[in-house]
Amino acid sequence: MLLTANAMSRRMRLGLYLTTGAIALFLLLPIVFIVLLSFGSSQWLVFPPPGWTLKWYSQFFSNPDWMDAAFASLKVAVLTTVFAVALGLPTAFALVRGRFRGREMLYGLFTLPMIVPLVIIAVAVYALFLKLGYTGTMFAFVVSHVIVALPFTIISIINSLKLFDQSIEDAAVICGASRLQAVFRVTFPAIRPGMVAGALFAFLVSWDEVVLSVMMASPTLQTLPVKMWTTLRQDLTPVIAVASTLLIALSVLVMVIAAAVRRRNEVSA
Length: 269
Known about the structure:
Layout: H1 2-37, H2 55-62, H3 64-97, H4 103-110, H5 118-132, H6 138-163, H7 166-174, H8 179-190, H9 192-207, H10 211-216, H11 224-232, H12 239-268
C-alpha cells in the first residue's frame, strides 16, 4: 500500500513537472524566436533564418533614430521610477498608518489604473495634455507613465510596511530619536526590499509601455516601443527583432537584479 502511494506521488510530481515545463515552453518560445530572428541573415522576419549575422545589430546601433528612441525610453523609465517611488512612499505610509475616513476607498482609487483598460486611460490623458498643450513632451510621457506605474509601487511598499513591526520604530523614539529620525534610520532600511521592488516594477512598466506612449509621441520624441510600432507598420525589418531583443534583455537584467537584492536581504535578515 505504501509503495502504491509513493508511486502515485511520483507520477503526480512528474505530471506537475511536465505540465509546468510545457507551459513555460509555450510562454518562452515566442521570445526565443524573436531573439533568433535578430541574428538571422534574411532581410525579412523569416524563421528559421537561412543564416546568421550581426548586421542588424550594427544597423540598429548606427541609426540615430533608433538610438534616440532607446535613450528616450531609458530616460522616461528612470524618471518614472524616481517619481513613482517619491509619490508612492508617502502614499503607502498614509494608507497603512493613517486613521481617516475613506482610507479603503482611497486605496481603491490609487489601484484603479491596474483595473481600468489602458486604452481608456491613454485617451483621457491624451485629451488632457492636448488641451494643455503638453503632448509630445517629456513631461507628458513621465506623468502618463507614473499614472500606470504608481499602483505597483504603492502595493509593494504597503506590503513591506504591513510586515514591519512598528514597535521597533517606537523603541527608537523612546531611546531619544525623533519620529523623523526613526523613520529614516529604522523604518526605511527595514522596508527597503519593498521600495526596491516598487522601483523595479515602475521601471519595467514604463520601459515597455506602448499604448500611452503612442498617444504621447511626436515626430521629435518617441520611445523605443513607439519606434518599433511605427516601423512595423511600414516594414518587417529584422531591426525590429533587435529592438525587441534589447527590450527583453534589459527587462531580464532588471529581474535578475531584483532577485539578487531579494536574496541578499534574506541572507542579511
